[in-house]
Amino acid sequence: MTTGTPALAMRELLADIDNSPPGPATGAYFDFDGTLIRGHSSMAFCVNRLRHAEWPAEAWHALTSAPPHRIAADLWRARSGVETCAAARLAAAAAACWHGRTEDELGMLSERVYREEIAPKIDRDMWALVRAHQAKGHSVCVATAASSAQVAPLAHALGVSELLCTPVPVVDGRVVTDTLPTMCSGADKLAAVRAHARRHGIALSDSYAYCDGYEDIPLLQAVGRPRVVRARAALAAEAGRQGWPSALVGRPRDSVLDKLRATAGAAGAATVSLAGALAAAGAGCEPRAVVSRAVRLGSALILRAAGVEVAVRGGHRPAPVGPAVYVANHTSPLDAVVLARLIDGDWCAVVKRELGDVPVLGSCLRFADTLFVDRSRPLQSVDLLDRAVERLSSGRSVLVLPEGTRALTPDVGPFRSGAFHMAARAGVPVVPIAIHNATDVMARSGLTLRPGTIEVTVLPPVDTRGWDPAKIRTEADRVRQSLVEALRA
């Protein structure tokens, strides 16, 4: 960040939105690559095709069609933020992956790349800013040089219907990329934004633009509230001259060494914990006592070895309420370790059946009296419910992640009602726990960890006595909404 450029932390960015005029006359224009997501979606398409062994020769040609010295110069310019040529080359490579496909085929490819490559790159803070603008009734629009194939799935997930992007050329129902259309970038993006503002009665002087690239300087100059996101040298220098505020979103990148050290430390601690639990089990120790000690010690060792701290907002850990059903949002593989560190006493978890087939881990889960749910056989849910109620009645708590799988986006997904049925039948409270930022430490599908602090909020226990069995769905939605509000706080 250039000296003299004001910096706005997330609380200041959100407060500014909250104090802005409500209604659709205020626009909020978000760039896509490098802003809403980290990295470039064109590269995500190329990587995904390689991952599925579908790399076409045309894509390689698009990347290498210029002389080596020109490619090197483009990459050097991109490093400082002047990346028009490099972005065009990447876009051509991605477009080559689409050539000849039908629109339906492109749509399926786009959804696959979104699930596997782009969703894990979503910036959680930028997502929160979009939600804040939507809550004020602002006209939210994604304005990007990326194509509709790259940006549409994320825009749909955000509920943003207004897209200003590079069109995908289609002839006779098939994508044709022999000649690419003009990219929605620089002056062309500004023209598109101005036309959009005229159509919708938006005052650009009262509007926001969130951008990361040098090519977006014309747009940032045109709005009343420019916000520079993760600017590199070229844009940072211009932002310093113009006095544009820099949005302090996300967290700085860690070195590869830091990630490797954290991951190796966590793996070593997990191995020690598993070995200790198995040794105690072999020595004939009482299983429930072994499991309780191993879970508490193992989770603490894993987090400490990885350089990860768990900070409870308000300082309130789960109160000793006796047996309870603990529920939490689920975005990261690390969620279970964080919850194990928080929950005291004797408890077991409900996990997907596939984990029982994992060597060593599956044996440990069965030894811990874990409840396995087969999501492909819903008729087994009655038996699972009976077994869960039996454990609760014996004094054990149960941990459930009611979304059923890790969420693709920072939003809390729909809750399944099983956890709430078991709590109501056993007459025990539901304790909601909001995990704010576990993906900052370990991504949704990540294999490595990074040091950091995970913040959680433990909500007050919800009394389930008197719940009407016919209205469990409503009660589940209320608990989910309390988690949503805690995560936004």
From TrEMBL:
E.C. no: 2.3.1.51, 3.1.3.3
Recorded hits in PANTHER family, A to Z, give:
1-ACYL-SN-GLYCEROL-3-PHOSPHATE ACYLTRANSFERASE (PTHR10434), PHOSPHOLIPID_GLYCEROL ACYLTRANSFERASE DOMAIN-CONTAINING PROTEIN (PTHR10434:SF66)
> Which Pfam families does this one have?
Acyltransferase, HAD
Keyword hit for Transferase: yes
The protein's UniProt keywords, in alphabetical order, are: Acyltransferase, Hydrolase, Transferase
Cross-referenced NCBIfam families, in alphabetical order? HAD-SF-IB (TIGR01488), HAD-SF-IB-hyp1 (TIGR01490)
Q: Which Gene3D superfamilies match?
A: HAD superfamily/HAD-like (3.40.50.1000), SG protein - dephosphorylation function (1.20.1440.100)
A GO MF term:
hydrolase activity
The record places domain Phospholipid/glycerol acyltransferase at 324-438
What's the protein here called? Answer: Putative phosphoserine phosphatase/1-acylglycerol-3-phosphate O-acyltransferase
TM segments?
A: none
Q: Which GO terms describe its biological process?
A: phosphatidic acid biosynthetic process
What highest taxon heads this organism's lineage? Bacteria
Q: Which organism is it from?
A: Streptomyces candidus
